[in-house]
Design brief:
Oligomer: single chain
Number of strands: 0
Radius of gyration: 22 Å
Number of helices: 4
Largest sheet: none
């Protein structure tokens, strides 16, 4: 996990150097963050907006939105825990730990979705039978 964080930091540093070399930009880190994160954020917003507009037409859109939001929060939480372990030296910072934590959520959500689907089918069956 440490290697991944270090590799990502190196990539960011290389992009910083490329922006300076290509465009001759002499920006402070704050200015660079303002523009780069702002542009990445707007690009992401439009992609998510388009994707969510497609999802809202689906029958289970609220469930899908809830899952996406929760999964995003879980990713942030898992990596925050792993970074905390690296900073405090309490536990090992490993990518495999983060993946297993996310698998735990996915498996439990799948069980929930399966049980909810079974209950939904049973209720729908009994309602149709009464008619």
């Amino acid at each position: 996990m440490k290697e991944i964080v270090i590799a990502l930091a190196e990539i960011v540093n290389n992009i910083h150097d490329i922006l300076i070399d290509i465009f001759g930009l002499r920006m402070t880190d704050k200015e660079l963050h303002f523009w780069v994160i702002g542009l990445i954020g707007m690009f992401t917003f439009f992609m998510v907006y388009f994707f969510f507009k497609l999802l809202e037409r689906m029958k289970w859109s609220t469930t899908i939105f809830s899952f996406i939001y929760t999964f995003t929060v879980m990713i942030v939480l898992v990596f925050a825990i792993e970074l905390q372990q690296a900073i405090t030296n309490r536990g090992n910072m490993e990518f495999a730990d983060a993946v297993m934590g996310l698998w735990g959520f996915l498996v439990m959500f799948f069980v929930y979705a399966l049980l909810a689907s079974i209950i939904y089918i049973i209720i729908k069956f009994y309602r149709n039978r009464r008619k």
